[in-house]
Amino acid sequence: MVNNNKLAWFISGYTDAEGCFNVTINSKSNGKYQVSLHFEIHIHSRDIQLLSDIQLYFKEVSTLTSSKNKSLIKYVVRNFDDLYNVIIPHYEKYLLLSQKLINFLLFKEIALLMRNKEHLTDEGLLKIIAIKASMNLGLSDKLLLAFPVEPHLRPKINTLEIPDPH
Q1: Segment 50-84, tens digit of pLDDT
Q2: Residue 1 pLDDT level (bands cut at 50, 70, 90)
Q3: Closest by CA position to 21, among listed 82, 85, 78, 94
Q4: Which of 95, 109, 116, 151 has its C-alpha lying 20 to 30 A from 85's C-alpha?
Q5: What is the pTM of this model?
Q6: Which of 23, 14, 30, 28 is nearest to 110 (CA)?
Q7: What stretch of H or E contains 40?
Q8: Which uninterrupted H or E stretch holds 48?
Q9: d(CA 73, CA 46)
Q10: Own/partner pairs for 125-131, CB < 8 Å, 24+ apart?
């Protein structure tokens, strides 16, 4: 994978299949809630070189971890600045094509709220929870009980053309 543009499109395509944009909301002992974001790509360990190439492309802003039985390798980016300054700009330029694009757009919306420190306010936390309710598998039963929010409007996409064959 020599051509950086080809690699960039390949990474977006691969993310459409194997990547995940996650938002975690955990309660702390003081009764407050902590919001964290992370981006992951999962792959079988025999293909670890692919994740190493992705890690190198993103300037090593991630960690690689393996499952207990070593059969699964995860590429994970948890650092907010890396997500905001490296991962998000990549997917803004090299768009996802599947429904994962919606999860990315919602993930990005939460990142913008966090960048503005809105996650530290009750109102901002409710906005984030409503957005998370529209992502991936939605809210956990515990969060649904604590925050009976109306889910954020989930955008619709209708990809009609592939911008790059890679």
Answers
A1: 888 999 999 878 888 887 888 889 999 999 999 99
A2: very low
A3: 78
A4: 151
A5: 0.86
A6: 23
A7: strand 33-44
A8: helix 48-57
A9: 9
A10: 125/25, 125/33, 125/35, 127/152, 128/23, 128/25, 128/35, 129/25, 131/23, 131/106
